[in-house]
Design brief:
Transmembrane segments: 12-30, 36-63, 75-93
Keywords: Membrane, Transmembrane, Transmembrane helix
Number of helices: 4
Radius of gyration: 15 Å
Number of strands: 0
Structural class: mainly alpha
Helix content: over 70%
Distance between the termini: 42 Å
Strand content: under 5%
Protein backbone atom coordinates (compact mmCIF):
# COMPACT_ATOMS: atom_id res chain seq x y z
CA UNK A 1 0.00 0.00 0.00
CA UNK A 2 1.29 3.43 -0.93
CA UNK A 3 1.94 6.02 1.77
CA UNK A 4 -0.24 9.16 1.64
CA UNK A 5 1.82 12.21 0.70
CA UNK A 6 1.20 15.79 1.79
CA UNK A 7 2.93 19.02 0.85
CA UNK A 8 5.08 20.38 3.68
CA UNK A 9 3.16 23.68 3.84
CA UNK A 10 -0.27 22.07 4.05
CA UNK A 11 0.78 19.49 6.60
CA UNK A 12 2.55 22.07 8.79
CA UNK A 13 -0.40 24.47 8.65
CA UNK A 14 -2.82 21.73 9.65
CA UNK A 15 -0.67 20.64 12.59
CA UNK A 16 -0.07 24.20 13.81
CA UNK A 17 -3.76 25.13 13.50
CA UNK A 18 -4.86 21.99 15.30
CA UNK A 19 -2.26 22.33 18.05
CA UNK A 20 -2.94 26.03 18.78
CA UNK A 21 -6.70 25.50 18.79
CA UNK A 22 -6.36 22.56 21.16
CA UNK A 23 -4.07 24.50 23.51
CA UNK A 24 -6.48 27.45 23.65
CA UNK A 25 -9.46 25.16 24.31
CA UNK A 26 -7.62 23.25 27.04
CA UNK A 27 -6.42 26.49 28.64
CA UNK A 28 -10.01 27.75 28.74
CA UNK A 29 -11.24 24.43 30.06
CA UNK A 30 -8.69 24.48 32.89
CA UNK A 31 -8.94 28.16 33.85
CA UNK A 32 -12.44 29.13 32.65
CA UNK A 33 -11.01 32.59 31.94
CA UNK A 34 -12.75 34.83 29.42
CA UNK A 35 -9.31 35.83 28.18
CA UNK A 36 -9.10 32.47 26.41
CA UNK A 37 -12.56 32.92 24.94
CA UNK A 38 -11.48 36.16 23.29
CA UNK A 39 -8.10 34.72 22.36
CA UNK A 40 -9.87 31.77 20.75
CA UNK A 41 -12.23 34.06 18.86
CA UNK A 42 -9.41 36.12 17.40
CA UNK A 43 -7.40 32.98 16.72
CA UNK A 44 -10.28 31.48 14.72
CA UNK A 45 -10.68 34.67 12.65
CA UNK A 46 -6.97 34.77 11.82
CA UNK A 47 -6.78 31.00 11.25
CA UNK A 48 -9.72 31.09 8.81
CA UNK A 49 -7.99 33.73 6.69
CA UNK A 50 -4.63 31.93 6.68
CA UNK A 51 -6.19 28.51 6.07
CA UNK A 52 -8.24 29.86 3.16
CA UNK A 53 -5.18 31.42 1.54
CA UNK A 54 -3.13 28.22 1.85
CA UNK A 55 -6.11 26.07 0.79
CA UNK A 56 -6.56 28.13 -2.38
CA UNK A 57 -2.82 27.94 -3.06
CA UNK A 58 -2.77 24.16 -2.59
CA UNK A 59 -5.87 23.75 -4.75
CA UNK A 60 -4.43 25.90 -7.55
CA UNK A 61 -1.17 23.96 -7.42
CA UNK A 62 -3.10 20.70 -7.50
CA UNK A 63 -5.09 21.81 -10.54
CA UNK A 64 -2.17 23.27 -12.50
CA UNK A 65 0.93 21.24 -11.57
CA UNK A 66 1.35 17.84 -13.17
CA UNK A 67 4.51 16.68 -11.42
CA UNK A 68 3.47 16.31 -7.76
CA UNK A 69 -0.29 16.61 -8.07
CA UNK A 70 -1.40 14.16 -5.43
CA UNK A 71 0.40 15.67 -2.44
CA UNK A 72 -1.14 19.12 -2.99
CA UNK A 73 -4.63 17.67 -3.35
CA UNK A 74 -4.18 15.66 -0.16
CA UNK A 75 -2.95 18.77 1.64
CA UNK A 76 -5.98 20.75 0.48
CA UNK A 77 -8.23 18.05 1.93
CA UNK A 78 -6.20 17.98 5.13
CA UNK A 79 -6.66 21.74 5.56
CA UNK A 80 -10.41 21.28 5.08
CA UNK A 81 -10.33 18.86 8.01
CA UNK A 82 -9.84 21.90 10.27
CA UNK A 83 -13.50 22.83 9.71
CA UNK A 84 -15.12 19.87 11.51
CA UNK A 85 -12.43 20.01 14.20
CA UNK A 86 -13.28 23.68 14.86
CA UNK A 87 -17.00 22.83 14.91
CA UNK A 88 -16.35 20.04 17.41
CA UNK A 89 -14.30 22.38 19.62
CA UNK A 90 -17.12 24.95 19.48
CA UNK A 91 -19.57 22.24 20.53
CA UNK A 92 -17.32 21.36 23.47
CA UNK A 93 -16.99 25.05 24.40
CA UNK A 94 -20.75 25.64 24.42
CA UNK A 95 -21.38 22.55 26.57
CA UNK A 96 -18.81 23.29 29.28
Amino acid sequence: MEKVKFSPVGKSLFLISWLLGTIILLAFWISESWFFVWLGFYYVVIAVVINMIVFCSELLTFLTDVSDKKSHGNSALLILLNIPIAAFYFFIFTNI
